[in-house]
Design a protein that fits this description.
Blueprint lengths: L6 E5 L4 H12 L3 E6 L2 H14 L5 E4 L5 H15 L4 E4 L14 H29 L2 E5 L12 H21 L5 E5 L4
Parallel strand pairs: 1-2, 1-4, 2-3, 4-5, 5-6
Helix pairs in contact: 1-2, 3-4, 4-5
GO molecular function: oxidoreductase activity
Pfam families: adh_short (PF00106)
Keywords: Oxidoreductase
Length: 186
């Protein structure tokens, strides 16, 4: 598969699935915009991408739970490249806790990171994705389709993310934008 010339935003790109996705797509010729909270970790991933790819990734320090950071991410990407072809909503976090243990602060924190941020960034990117007839990939989890004990907030956030993905896919398909999720497990 050739991603040469494709502009790809990847959130949560400083480690794990996000970093691996950045290296893989850079190796396929994509121009990646790497977003995460840790500039130091982003720079490390950037160096790894340069070793396997043709184009140096663009870094934008971003806390996806802050709307102004999401706006900055889109604004800087469009200013530098003029478009977005793929949005990979990968940033996320987990937390343990049953209904007896989890509190409202944990629930809000997990939902803000795993769901609300995806809504915010996707909403901001939609006009650009329609223009490029682009793609959205939401990184969910096996916890979105299966229930697990002691993981209430996380499971709820990922199940909601899967439903968000399906609804958004139906809304944007007539406009030529594909929206999918992946549900990795352990």
């Amino acid at each position: 598969m050739d991603f040469t010339g494709k502009i790809v935003i990847i959130t949560g790109a400083s480690s794990g699935i996000g970093a691996a996705t950045a290296k893989y797509l850079t190796g396929l010729g994509a121009t990646c915009v790497l977003a995460a909270r840790s500039e130091e970790n982003l720079k490390s991933v950037q160096r790894e991408c340069i070793a396997v790819g043709k184009v140096e990734p663009f870094l934008v320090v971003t806390d996806v739970t802050r709307r102004e950071d999401c706006e900055k991410l889109l604004r800087l990407t469009i200013a530098k490249y003029g478009r977005v072809d793929v949005l990979v909503n990968n940033a996320g976090k987990g937390a343990g806790g049953s209904i007896e243990v989890a509190d409202l602060e944990q629930f809000d924190d997990i939902l803000n990171t795993n769901l609300r941020s995806v809504f915010t960034l996707t909403k901001l990117a939609v006009p650009h994705l329609i223009a490029s007839r682009g793609n959205v990939v939401n990184v969910s989890s096996v916890a979105g389709t299966n229930s697990f004990p002691n993981a209430l907030s996380y499971c709820v956030s990922k199940a909601a993310l899967d439903q968000f993905t399906r609804c958004t896919a139906l809304d944007l398909a007539p406009k030529g934008v594909r929206v999918n999720s992946v549900n990795p497990g352990k």
